[in-house]
Amino acid sequence: MDECRTWQRGEYTISTEKSRLDRDVIHSFLARSYWAAGIPRAVVEKSLEHSLAFGVYHGTRQVGFARIITDYATFAYVSDVFIIEEYRGKGLGKWLMQVVVDYPELQGLRRWILMTRNAHGLYEKVGFVRSRNPQRLMEMHFDDIYQR
C-alpha cells in the first residue's frame, strides 16, 4: 500500500512520496484555511503519518496537496485538498483529484466522502455528488478545536 507513485504533466508532478512533502507549505496553508484554521504543526505531522498523501509540485516546489484517510478496502475520506493561490486556474486541482480517484489501491471502495464549502464543481468533475441520504450522516464537529 505504501508504494510511491508519480505522475507527470508538463512541468508539474504529482507524487505520493511522503519524504518529498514540504511540511512547511502544508502546515502554512492549512493553518489559514477555513477548515483547519490554527491547526498545530504537530497535528499536521500526525495526520501525514496516518494518511495517503498526494503532493503537487512545480519542479521541486510544492504547490498543492490532498490527503486521503482510508482502509484501502471499503472507505476513503478526501481531506485537506488545496492548490496554492498563485497556481490556481491551471487545471491542477482537477488533475490532482483525477489522480486521487484513479489511484489503483483505492479502486473498488464502497464509499468516498468529503466535505467542502465552495468547491463542489471541482469534485463533481471527478464523480462526486451531493449526498443522496444526508439524513443518514451524523457527525461530531468541534469548530474551535485548534483555538482551545
User: How many β-strands, per DSSP?
Assistant: 6
Radius of gyration: 15 Å
Give the oligomer, counting copies of the same chain as homo and different chains as hetero: single chain
From the N-terminal CA to the C-terminal CA, the straight-line distance is: 35 Å
Structural class comes to alpha+beta
What does this structure look like?
- With 148 residues, the protein is α+β, with helices and mostly antiparallel strands.
- Helices cover 23% and strands 26% of the residues.
- Strands 1-2-3-4-5-6 form a 6-stranded mixed β-sheet, with helices on both faces.
- A hairpin with a 2-residue loop joins strand 1 (6-9) and strand 2 (12-15).
- The longest helix is centred in the middle third of the chain and has 11 residues, at 92-102.
Briefly characterize the structure.
This protein is an alpha+beta fold. The chain is 23% helix and 26% strand.
How is this fold's topology laid out?
Layout: E1 6-9, E2 12-15, H1 23-31, H2 41-49, E3 52-58, E4 61-70, E5 75-83, H3 92-102, E6 111-114, H4 120-124
Parallel strand pairs: 5-6
Antiparallel strand pairs: 1-2, 2-3, 3-4, 4-5
Output the keywords:
alpha+beta; 4 helices; 6 strands; globular
